[in-house]
Structure formats: C-alpha cells, structure tokens
Write a structure and sequence with these properties.
The protein is mostly helical. It has three domains: about 130 residues, Leucine-rich Repeat Variant; about 210 residues, Leucine-rich Repeat Variant (Alpha Horseshoe); about 130 residues, no CATH class. Helices cover about 60% and strands about 0% of the residues. It is built from 32 helices and no strands. α10 runs parallel beside α12 and α15 packs antiparallel against α16. The chain is flat and about 105 Å long. It comes from Stigmatella aurantiaca (strain DW4/3-1). GO terms for molecular function: oxidoreductase activity. InterPro entries: ARM-like, ARM-type_fold, PBS_lyase_HEAT.
Length: about 650
C-alpha cells in the first residue's frame, strides 16, 4: 500500500472510532434519562452493538421501574445467550406486566439449556392465557418435542403434588379445598386417596371427599357413598346425593327413594337425583312411588318427570282415590302426571264438591293438569261458588271511583309557591327529562309501562283468600270451558294481582284467540306477573312463542341483551318461513342472555298514591320464557299495598 493511501485509511479509521465512541457515550447517557422511552431505545441500541461488557447494563435495566425498559432488557439478555442470565430472565417471567413476561419467555428460548426450559415449563401453570401461548411458542422455538403436551403435563403434575401436600399437611379449610380439587383431576389414584376420608371425624372434610369422589366419576365409590345417606348430618347427606347424581349408578336408587320419602330438607335433592338417573325399571318405579307417597312438592316433581316418560301404572292411583283416607295422595299423583292420568278424571271430578277446601283445591289442580274439556261444567260450577263466596268481602265501601290525580295543594311533588325555588327548578328539570324519554320511546314504537291506578285505598281481602278463585280461573283456561274467554277477559282487568295474573294465564291457555287477548298483560308493571305470563305463553307452542317474539320490538331497549334468549325462536320462525317458500338459507344468530327483573315502583307516604314516572318493561321477562321450568303458578302477593299513579 502506498504511503498516501495508508495515511488516508488511518485517518478514516480514527474518525470512525471517534464517532462510534461518541455515539456510545450518548447511549450510556441516555440510560440515565428520566424518560422511559429514551432509556428503552438506549438499551435496544446497545444490544445491537453486541458488546459483552454491556451485560451488566442490561442486568441493571431489567430492574427498571418502567415496563417498557424491562421488556427491552429481557430481549437484550436473551440475545446475549449467556447462561448466567437465565435466573434473571426467570424473574422477569414473573413480572407484573404481561408484555414483559412474553418477551422474557422468548428470550429464554434463545438460551439452549435445560434450566431455561425448566423455567418455561414451571411458569406455564402460573401465568395467564396470553403468556401461556407465548411460553408454548418459546418451547417450540427451543426445539422441545410436544411442547404443549409437555407444558400441560408439567402443570397437571404440579397441581396434583400441591393438592396432595395440602391434603396431608394443610389446615382444615385447605384440606377441604384440596380434597375437592383432587377429585376433579379424575385420576384413579384420587379415588384411592379420598375413599378413606368419607368416614373422617371432620364432617366438612368428609363431605368434601364425597364431592371429590363424585367429580372423579369412578363408580367404585358408590358402595362407600350410598351408606352415608343414613347419616344425620345434612351437609354430608347433601354431598352424597350430589355425588350419586354425578356417578349415575342405579344401584343407589333404593336409598335415594327412601330419602325422598322421608320428607326432610334433602328430599328435594333426592328427587332431582332420581330424575337425572338413566331411565330404567328401578328408576321409574321409584319416581311413581314418590308421586304417590311423597310430600306434595316432591310428588309433583316426580309426577312431572314421569309425565314425559309415559306415565305411571294407574291401578295404585285408582285405589288411593277410592279410599277417603288416601285420596290426597291419589290427587297429587294425578296433578303431577297430568294428561298421562286422564282416565282418572271421572274419579277426580266428584272431589271438586268436597267440603274440605285443601282437598278441593288439590282436585282442581289435578283437573287443571289433565286439561280435559269434559271437566268444563264442573269447573264453571266451582267458579260460580267461589265468586259468590267472595262477593260480600269485595264490596266497595265507597261506590264512586277514586280520584286519579291530586287535588290542588296536595301533590307532594308539586313545587310550593314562594318556597324552595331550587326544588321547583329540580322538579321542572325531571319533568322535562321524563317527557323527552317518553317521546323517544313513542318515536321508537316502544310501549311505556304505566303503573296500575289503585281502585281501593285499602283491600281487606287477604291474597291467600283469593287464591282459590285464582286457581279456578287458571283451570277455566286449561279445560277450555265454554264462555271462559269472556269470563277471563273480565277478570284480566281485576285490581287484585292474584286474580289478574290467573286470568291472564288462563287466557294464554285458550288457544290463539286467548293468546291475543293475554299478550297485552306483558306490559303490566308487576314483574312477577310478566314472568309468569311469559312462561305460560311460551308453553302454548307456536302461537304463544310467536306472540312473545312479536312483542320484542315494543319492549324497552335498556336491557336489550336479556332478550337474546328468545333469539332461537325468532331464527326458527325465519327458517320455517324460508322453507315454506322453497329455499332455506343459513343465517347467523345471536347468543343467549340472562333475564333481568326489577321491582315495581313503591308507594307514597301515608298510604296515598305517589305520582312517579312510568316504568318500562324489561325484555328479560319475555326472554325467560324461552325455557319452561319451575312451578308455573304465581304465588299470591302478601300485603295489601296500592300501586303508584302514572
């Protein structure tokens, strides 16, 4: 090389080294910047230089207060591939910030040793979903065969070991939780561990072991759980019934039947367990026996279960109905079986004239469940009898109607002249808000629910006294008695909530014409009435369900998510219509929501009506009707309060 060229090369090299040194000095200064983004950029730039002496700087940056700096430090430490930084990256894998956890996981994948893989596998069970996915990706990058399977297996083993240690060494509450978790693992070894605990002196631990055995799903535990039904501890018996329901072993049917017939606090659980058992001769025989000999509530549940299975033998029921001492048990069996016990109608109808009120109501419930029009005349006669008995009690003391607005000077919400101008402005503001909301609802085609105006200051007839007439009104609709439509329409406007509810439910059972007359009750202000009517409409098949769907656009949209549970009905109707036109197309549908209910507005002070804004019907009351369940009867309202004026 010529001397001139050599000198030029030396000068350029010296200048470049000086520039690089100056740039590095600037990066080192940026590490002390108060701004975290500048510190993060400095760490990133230093990592690109690949200087081994910068490892101590990255270690210090890994403990920075800012997560953005810690994330860059984790990436820089992984790029060094130095085995000494594995522990520090393991600490960053537990960082509170998920983005730092993910970058630390990917940094560990660059260090190809067993310790780094162990950190990734260990932390998989302790991290959230996003970090878990990154850990699996990091294991794959580290060429770990079956990365997902290995991570899940390691997590399962860690949970098992932790629960096993807790079961042996923990406090009582910890042992209870560990016993349940061991059962949920489903391992055969869990059954061997839990079986000795079902006889533990600590009842809560024994109950937890029983629940765990039920979750394990191993039928070997049935022989150990079934004798616990004879214990006197309700908690242990409840856990045993729940476990037997999950194990689905019919060898426990006899013991469950005995519990259901003892009329204790766990009898209803035993009924539910029997109803969930696989259908067989033993299960059906047990349910039929309970429908005859159990308490009323359990008998109705057992009978309704057997109603869907074809019914029970009618000879024992006929024998019970023929003896006055056992007629109640026969009636409750018929009420549960419903149409499946239709041949027993001729034996039930004479009981409608019984002098025993409770027996008469039980017979009426049986007639309602059967729903045979042949019972119409007998139900009409009972209606006239109940109406005549209530007529003296419901006479108005004051024949003239009550005023629906306050007289001047008596409205508590009206501003007083010359007093409290601030309150007057507040009342005026709320009036404007209410009027705007009402106008918005009218523009959207929605119906504003107006509270019913009270027709009496005080009703001395207790709701329980009205229940017999309410039951007759429901029966009129169920048996489709002649003239029932006019009678039920008359009672649909009754001021009494039990009678009004029963009349609307009876109308819903009268077919399309009755459904059309009853659906207006969905805009009542009483939430319990709305829910009971919605269930009754949904049980009437296509006509009732179509009525509910047609009402949805008129409901308030403030709880629109709850109406999605009726979306399957809407989609089904659309598909049927398209099939009728000759071409079915697929469409996407929405998900199911949760019903929502809210109490109706309260009363004014001193028993006077309180003027307030009208409520709006929540869509959840109609949406809850998508799946029938529970007792369809609407219980009478306690107390005799009045409703607010609109």
């Amino acid at each position: 090389m010529r001397p001139g060229v050599r000198s030029l090369f030396f000068v350029l090299s010296l200048g470049l080294a000086t520039a690089c040194q100056g740039n590095r000095d600037q990066l080192l200064a940026d590490l002390q910047s108060p701004r975290p983004e500048i510190r993060a950029q400095a760490v990133q730039a230093l990592a690109k230089q690949g200087n081994a002496d910068d490892l101590v700087l990255f270690t210090r940056a890994a403990k920075d207060m800012a997560s953005i700096v810690r994330g860059e430090a984790a990436e820089a430490l992984g790029g060094s591939q130095d085995p000494r930084v594995v522990d520090l990256l393991g600490e960053l894998l537990e960082d509170p910030d998920e983005s730092v956890q993910g970058r630390a996981a990917m940094a560990l994948s660059k260090i190809k040793n067993d310790k780094a893989k162990a950190y990734l596998t260990l932390q998989y069970s302790r991290r959230a979903r996003n970090t878990r996915q990154i850990i699996v990706q990091a294991l794959k990058s580290a060429n770990v065969p079956g990365a997902m399977a290995e991570a899940v297996a390691a997590e399962s083993k860690a949970i098992w070991d932790r629960n096993l240690t807790t079961l042996n060494e923990g406090s009582l509450p910890e042992r209870v939780g560990a016993a349940e978790e061991l059962g949920k693992s489903g391992r055969p070894e869990a059954v061997n561990r839990l079986l000795p605990l079902v006889r533990d002196s600590q009842v809560v631990l024994a109950a937890a072991a029983v629940r765990g055995l039920g979750d394990a799903g191993d039928r070997r535990a049935v022989s150990a759980i079934a004798p616990l039904l004879d214990e006197s501890f309700p908690q242990l018996r409840e856990a045993s019934i729940t476990a037997l329901s999950k194990l689905q072993d019919t060898t426990a049917v006899a013991r469950l039947q005995a519990v259901a017939l003892e009329k204790s606090v766990v009898s209803s659980l035993a009924i539910d367990s029997l109803a969930s058992m696989p259908r067989g001769p033993e299960t059906d025989a047990a349910l039929c026996t309970i429908s005859l000999e159990g308490a009323l509530a359990e008998s109705l549940v057992a009978g309704r279960t057997m109603r869907s299975r074809g019914g029970c033998p009618l000879e024992p029921i006929a024998e019970r109905l023929s003896r006055p001492a056992s007629i109640d048990s026969g009636l409750q069996a018929v009420a549960g079986l419903g149409p499946a016990a239709q041949p027993m109608l001729s034996r039930v109808l004479p009981v409608l004239t019984s002098a025993d009120a409770s027996q008469r109501m039980l017979a009426l419930e049986a007639v309602t469940a059967i729903g045979d029009p042949a019972a119409g005349p007998a139900v009409q006669k009972l209606y006239e009898q109940e109406l005549k008995a209530l007529e003296p009690l419901r006479q108005d003391w004051v024949p003239s109607p009550l005023p629906q607005v306050y007289a001047p000077g008596f409205d508590p919400s009206a501003p007083q002249d010359g007093k409290e101008p601030r309150n007057a402005k507040t009342a005026q503001l709320f009036d404007r808000v209410r009027s705007l909301n009402a106008q918005r609802a009218r523009d959207a085609g929605q119906v504003q629910v107006q509270p019913r105006v009270p027709s009496e200051l005080y009703d001395e007839v207790e709701p329980q006294r009205l229940e017999p007439l309410a039951a007759v009104l429901r029966a009129l609709g169920a048996v489709k008695a002649p003239g029932a439509l006019d009678v039920l329409k008359q009672h649909a406007g009754d001021p009494s909530l039990p009678l009004r509810s029963a009349a609307l439910i009876g109308l819903a059972r009268l077919g399309p014409e009755g459904v059309e007359a009853a659906k207006g009750g969905m805009f009542e202000s009483e939430r319990e009435l709305q829910k009971a009517l919605a269930l009754a409409l949904a049980e009437q098949g296509e006509a009732g369900q179509a009525a509910l769907v047609s009402l949805l656009p008129q409901f308030s949209s403030e709880k629109a998510g709850a109406a999605r549970c009726l979306e399957p009905l809407r989609r089904a109707r659309v598909r049927l219509a398209r099939l009728a036109r000759g071409g079915a197309r697929r469409r996407r549908g929405g998900g199911a929501g949760r019903p929502y209910s809210r109490e109706a507005p309260g009363q004014g002070r001193g028993g006077h009506p309180h003027q307030g804004p009208g409520g709006s019907l929540q869509r959840g009351e109609a949406g809850a009707a998508a799946g029938p369940g529970g007792d369809r009867r609407l219980p009478g309202r306690r107390g005799g309060g009045t409703q607010p004026l609109p």
